[in-house]
From TrEMBL:
Domain of life: Bacteria
Protein's UniProt keywords contain RNA-binding: yes
Keyword tags: Antiviral defense, RNA-binding
Transmembrane segment boundaries: none
Gene name for this UniProt entry: cas6
RNA-binding keyword on record: yes
Domain CRISPR associated protein Cas6 C-terminal: 139-257
Protein name: CRISPR-associated endoribonuclease Cas6
Biological source species: Dysgonomonas termitidis
Family affiliation: Belongs to the CRISPR-associated protein Cas6/Cse3/CasE family.
Length: 270
């Protein structure tokens, strides 16, 4: 399920951290914990199987100016919005709406802080609603946050890959297959037909670097990419998992969120 959340600032001229992804993720966990502490603890401490959280959120949508020296964003209005996806049954819609309705969300680090109230929560249309679970579909996926792909490095971190590296799509498919194994089982994951194709939309891919836990001893940097689309072909249930849980790495930190730009005809044979 995919929701659009509209926030309204409590104070005028709010400023939020330039690396808002981690603070916003932490704020979302707090909202979930208030509504269902056991579910929140499960997401934060355990996740599904290999630590997957099975939710992700987009970049924020609002006009702003960036102060790069002080590392904050000054919003040009009192509202911002973002989309958030959960891999949950449709019957959970009221539960999710209830979690966020009229909640306060603080987006803050050591240098900047802004407090917001949730103005509205709207479930977005499901473009795959009319398709059968095992029907093979092909969609054009538009990322609305950076997509992170990487392979483990010797130092325990990741070697981040760019979309013009063949290993980029291989990494995304490996990650996707791992999520399927966690959600279903290993045999289902290994037999699943999963196709990904990079579709550049501008002259060059656009890298983006974000800092997680900025200003703390655990600070780290994550590199992802924008300015491309993905042609995704798989069974509907697996495409839905990719949309709801996110593509690639660091989904619960707001990476790998996407939306269906174009739904192609069903495919009987690949």
């Amino acid at each position: 399920m995919n929701f659009k959340i509209m926030l309204q600032s409590i104070e005028p001229k709010p400023c939020i951290p330039i690396n808002y992804q981690y603070p916003l993720s932490a704020a979302l966990y707090r909202v979930i914990a208030k509504g269902d502490a056991r579910y929140a603890a499960f997401l934060h401490e355990t996740g599904y199987g290999k630590g997957f959280k099975f939710f992700t959120f987009s970049q924020i949508d609002c006009p702003f100016n960036i102060n790069r020296e002080e590392k904050y964003m000054k919003l040009q209005g009192n509202e911002l919005s973002f989309s958030i996806s959960f891999h949950l049954p449709l019957a959970m819609e009221s539960f999710i709406k209830g979690l966020f309705q009229s909640e306060r969300i603080d987006i803050a680090d050591k240098k900047s802080r802004a407090s917001f109230m949730v103005k509205s929560v709207e479930r977005l249309p499901d473009p795959l609603q009319t398709r059968k679970e095992n029907e093979i579909v092909s969609v054009i996926l538009k990322p609305n946050s950076m997509i992170v792909a990487g392979i483990p490095a010797e130092n325990g971190k990741y070697e981040y890959l760019s979309p013009d590296d063949q290993r980029f799509t291989e990494s995304l498919i490996y990650n996707w297959r791992s999520k399927i194994a966690t959600c279903y089982d290993e045999n289902t994951a290994q037999s699943a037909i999963l196709l990904l194709e990079i579709l550049p939309i501008k002259l060059a891919f656009k890298p983006r670097l974000i800092t997680i836990k900025a200003g703390t001893p655990n600070e780290s940097q994550v590199r992802g990419w924008l300015n491309f689309e993905l042609k995704v072909t798989a069974e509907k249930r697996f495409v839905e998992l990719l949309l709801n849980a996110g593509a690639g790495l660091y989904n619960a930190m707001g990476c790998g969120s996407g939306e269906v730009k174009l739904l192609k005809n069903s495919i009987n044979n690949i």
